[in-house]
Amino acid sequence: MPSSLGNEVTQFLTQLRDVRGYAELSLASYQRQLNLIAEQLNAADVNRWADLQVQHVENLVLKWRHQGAGASSIHQRLAALRSLCDFLVQRGILQANPAKVVKAPKAPKRLPKNLDIDAVIQLLDIKPDDELAIRDRAMFELLYSSGLRLAELVAVDVNDIQPDRELRVTGKGSKTRIVPYGKEAEKWLQQWLMVRATWPGADLPALFLSKQQRRLSDRSVQQRLKKWGIQQGLFENIHPHKLRHSFATHMLETSQDLRAVQEMLGHANLSTTQIYTHLDFQRLAAVYDAAHPRAKRK
Q1: Residue 276 catalytic?
Q2: Catalytic residue among 172, 175, 187, 227
Q3: What is the rounded distance in angstroms from the CA atom of residue 235 to the CA atom of residue 221?
Q4: Higher pLDDT, 273 or 73
Q5: CB 3.0 to 4.6 Å from 160: which of 57, 61, 168, 200, for a disulfide?
Q6: pLDDT of 202-236, one tens digit each?
Q7: What is the distance in angstroms between the CA of the first residue and the CA of the last residue of the chain?
Q8: 215: helix, coil or strand?
Q9: Counting beta carbons within 10 angstroms of the beta carbon of residue 14, is it exposed (0 to 12), middle (13 to 18) or buried (19 or more)?
Q10: Which of the four pLDDT bands, split at 50, 70 and 90, describes residue 260?
Q11: CA-CA distance, 85 to 96, in Å (whole number)?
C-alpha cells in the first residue's frame, strides 16, 4: 500500500480490531480491499485521503466493472471504502464521506433452487425403522407441507398444533401466523407425538426434541436432512430452505394465488414472494418454446 495512504488505513484497521472487536478473517478482508483501493487511487494521482472526491470513487467503480469484477466484489470494496471514509470523517481528515453517494451495480437476483415434485416424494418416502426416523419424517413432512423457515420449524411447540390441521407459527419479528398442513404431515405428526410421549424430555414444550432432552437445534435439522437426502438417493445439496422454496414453487404452479402463498410463507412484502413467479415463468416459457408453432425454430 502507498505509504501516503497507508497510515490512516493502519489506524482504521487497529480500531476495527481493538475497539470494535473484528475477527482476524474480517480484518484480512478489509485490508485486501483497502490495499487494492489505495494502489488504484495512487495510480490516479490521489495521494492523500483528504483529496478524495466523489468522482474518484465513481472512477474506481467504473474501473472495477471494466476489469470484470462482479457486483458482489464491488459491493465489498465500496463497503470497505465507506467504512474507512466514515472513520476519516470522525478524525477530521475528510469533511464528508464521498463513497456514500456512489452506488454499486445491482447484483442479479438469484432464483431460489427447488426440488421437483418427484424428488420431494423420493426424499420424504422414508420407511421409518426407529424412533429417530419417525421424528425426522414428521419434521420434513411439516417443513414441506407448510413452507416453514428452519427457525420456525425448531421453534414450534406441541401446543402450536391447532385443530383442523392448522399450525401456529412464530416468524420473523415475532409475528404469529396460522398455516395449514396436509394429511400426510398430520399422519406423521400423530405417530411422532405417540413416540414423543415416552421420549426423554417429553415434559418440555418443544415439538421436536433431541435425545439430549432439549429442543432440536437448527444445525441438527440441517444435518438430519442432508443425511436423509443422501440415503434417499438425492445427491444434490438438500437443505431446509430448499424444501421451503419447493413448497412455494409447487403451490404457485398449481394455485396461481400469489397472495395466499405470501401469507403462508410469512412474507411482509409481496415482492419477496414474486421471485417464485420467475421460477414458474421459466417452466411456462420452456413449455411455450416446445409447443407453440411460432416459437419453434426452423
Answers
A1: yes
A2: 172
A3: 17
A4: 73
A5: 168
A6: 999 999 999 899 999 999 999 999 999 888 888 66
A7: 59
A8: strand
A9: exposed
A10: confident
A11: 8
| 3-class SS of residue 121 | helix
**For residues 81-95, b (16+ Cβ closer than 10 Å) or e, as one string?**
bbbbbebbeeeeebe
Instruction: Please confirm, yes or no, whether 241 is among the known catalytic residues.
Output: yes
Task: Tally Cβ neighbours within 10 Å of residue 191.
Answer: 16
Alpha helices in the chain (DSSP H): 3-18, 24-43, 54-66, 71-90, 117-124, 131-146, 150-155, 183-196, 218-231, 240-255, 258-265, 270-273, 275-291
More confident residue, 55 or 254: 55
DSSP string, 130-164: SHHHHHHHHHHHHHHHHT--HHHHHH-BGGGEETT
Is 172 in the active site?
yes
Distance CA 141, CA 123 (A): 10
Quick check: is 244 catalytic? yes
Between CA 49 and CA 237 the distance in angstroms is 46
| pLDDT above 80 for 144 | yes
The edge-to-edge listing of strands for the beta sheet with 176-180 is 161-162, 166-170, 176-180
pLDDT score recorded for residue 198? 93
Do the beta carbons of residue 217 and residue 182 sit within 8 Å?
A: no
Active site residue 267: yes
Say which of 149, 215, 224, 250 is annotated catalytic: 149
Q: By three-state DSSP, how is residue 282 classified?
A: helix
